[in-house]
Here is the input.
Amino acid sequence: MTTRSIHLEPRWPAILALLAVGGLRLALPESLSIGPAWLLIPVVAVLAIPTVLARLHGDNRLNQVLGYLMVSIVTVDMVWSLGLLLLALPSHKETPKELLISAAALWITNILVFASWYWRLDAGGPRARELRGVHTDGAFLFPQMTLDQKSKRVMGEQCWSPGFIDYLFLAFNTSTAFSPTDTPVLSPWAKVMVMIQALISFTTVALLAARAVNIL
Here is the structure.
């Protein structure tokens, strides 16, 4: 009777992650942003309201579409800012301090954006994972999925399903180690996304941050 409540995954961490991306955008110079630096926060907040309402009213299709729309907008904004930052390197228009802060903000943004994508896409999305109850198959092989039934009972993980923090941890490891650590990637789409995330992370850390402190 309590199993279902255990698997009702809260959505606020994913929304907070996108709002945090909007906050990180404030650290970027105006020249590296689409429109005002504060614009992303109200855009995400406005879209979050109908997303939450759709979830509360059981309209899973609308909730999913609006969720994809939110993450897509944030992703496009991140890629655009990264492109502008790369173009700004040869012109030396931005100060080393601004470049360093921008690189750090985009590096963290990269983690939050891809964690959001992994959370929304893996195994059909959060709602599909809730309906299944126990997570046994997906694009990522989490350590809990490899436990035998006896170990799961001992650890209280019989009804385990990944939450946003699991995908955030996966994205963080990908951006720091440039590859997953304890979670193998199984699906082709997930492998492509992990490679893209690692490439963006490598670019911001190795190129942009290095240029900002005058190493290059």
Summary: Residues 3-212 form one domain.
